[in-house]
Design goal:
By secondary structure, the chain is of the alpha/beta class. Helices cover about 35% and strands about 15% of the residues. The chain contains 20 helices and 25 strands. An eight-stranded parallel beta sheet has the order 22-19-16-13-12-25-24-23. Strand 10 and strand 11 form a beta hairpin. Helix 5 packs antiparallel against helix 6. The longest helix has about 30 residues.
Amino acid sequence: MPGRLRAVTSASLAARCVRPYGPGYGRLARVTAPTPALVELAVAHGVATEYWDWQGKHVLVSTEVVSAVLAALGVDASTPDRAANALAEYQLARWRRTLPPTLVMREGWTPWFAVHLPHGSTAEVWVDLEDGGQRRDIPQQEHWVEPEWVDGVQVGEATYQLPGDLPLGYHRLCARIGGNPEVFTGTVIVTPQRLEPQKLQRTWGWVLQLYSVRSRRSWGIGDLHDLADLAAWSATDLGAGFVLVNPLHAAETAGRMEPSPYLPASRRFANPLYLRIEDIDEYGDLAPAERDRVRTLALQTRALSEDATALDRDTVWAAKREALQLLFGVRPSIGRIAEYGAYCDREGQGLVDFATWAAIADVHGPEWSKWPAELRDPAAPAVVAFRNDNPDAVEFHCWLQWQLDEQLARTQARATAAGMSLGVLHDLAVGVHPDGADAWALQRVLAAGIHVGAPPDAFNQQGQDWSQPPWRPDALAETGYAAWRDLVRAVIRHGGGLRIDHILGLFRLWWVTSPERPTEGTYVRYDHEALIGILVLEAARAGVVVVGEDLGTVEPWVRDYLTERGVLGTSVLWFERDAQGNPLPPERWRELCLATVTTHDLPPTAGYLAGDHVDLRDRLGLLTRPVAEELAVDEADRDSWLNALRERHLLGNADGDVERIVEALHRYVAHTPAKLVGVALTDAVGERRTQNQPGTTDEYPNWRVPLGGPDGVPVLIEDLPTNNRLRRLIGSLSS
């Protein structure tokens, strides 16, 4: 077949998913082995029935796990007969539809696609373009396919070819059969061949958790004004080119606010906790008594910024929400009204659904699975009635998102105006909270009863359950990837780049069927050509760089594919080793990557050098081998890096001087060809405490550790320009 189209159906996902089933594979005695029919059904839906773990051992997935994953995809494989029936239905499904739901192609490709119609009929096929134009030069090809009997009707298959000069964008494929006036439709998505990261100017930037980076003007939590100030100072005084922040996604605004930025209520919308109250235009129009109240709230919460203990999001949000309610009551100018209307029009039904979820959560709590049954479906009449009965409550949450949109835009503008080549790099979490806004509004395209996680690896030997519902690959294709398109477009709107957390999840995800045992799961394959293609299309339109976090267990071809599409990878010093397990020389690191010494899932470098991560995991019961063995392995790992520094004369006589070792490690990274070099702000100020310990929730204060120095005293933004430790570390990048 000419061209290189990937028709987006679950069949197209299976090619690399599973090796052929057969006897003699791995630990057959430990599981109920899937039957050949179940394996064939699983392959058809992109579900792995076997895989190789982080230690290179072959694992056969149990029948129970495979059946549970298929059930989440709407496929009943609970018995051999039902599995056989499901397979037969799957094989007939493509013959029952006139057009494929979604076709993804790259510019210049000339793919073929099938049109199904009553045998002997003729079809009229055309493409309605995104810009309002139309293309009718869609020729039929000489390609005979035997007709099939489907539901008592003989159905034929006609083959057509899309032209290679279709413009980039989202188009509608149309077909009319015979003289029937009905028009059948599908989606055609034309994506760029690649982004062009080679054109990036090499630069360095901060990597930080915004909520932890506070100032004397912020309300106990780092906010967007703090981010803009940090970016402007770093660009002007230090020559920084970017600031990579944690995901700023929306969290619950009712009840306890989830501390993890990687478990949001919505990825498309942002968290109003990050608003700087005094920067809202209507602040100047508050009545005197209301302004006095806001000032009182500000004084109370600013005192929290001097607190070195765990951050208190709930107290801060309660104060900010009271202030925001007062500001919401101020009548805006006619120009502001027009701007707000334009924002709402742009965001459409997605904004309405999000605001409706938030308003209902204010009444019934944030867990929509516990709401009255009639409110659990966003399209239900009771939900429409609630919205009509509570317009101000819904409007308030729409208004909050507008304020965030404005402050995000101003933050990026200040960063680039100060000289940053990229500005703010946003971070996209893997998924969403199972009881959050997206899980409620996007139920059609998310798998119910399944969690995203990760199988065991060297650092998380019990596996991970991230408690997030995964995308359904089939439902994404059926809907033209609309939810994914909207999400990517929203997150990159006000930034210079986007980091994709666990970008491997756009290729395959670990679906956990038992929350108590994250090891009980398997991989489900996604159509990466579609997901990465849309990501590249939106990034090209916005003019931003894309960084994929490609750490962990990676199939070798995946990194090659990302490089082919112009997506930068991620290189973390502690994980960069050659085939013999030795530290990878800097000249052999990838050029097209973001290179750092550490990551937020490890302690800051000073803590890592002290083995804090091993001690912490031991205290929390997260190790699967004796602590003495773990410490020995960890010490050998660190010693190998210290030896690498000595061999390159980067360490000098600094053995035992933690600050000098941290500087030497950053010099090592700076010697690599990496386009982007990231410096953790925690490393620059000497912080030792880890921000997150995977595999825990409340056992450790994850995502609640304020920025502090080696003595534990809070470090505020105003302290940074005179922090000699910071200046020495940044100086080491160019020494």
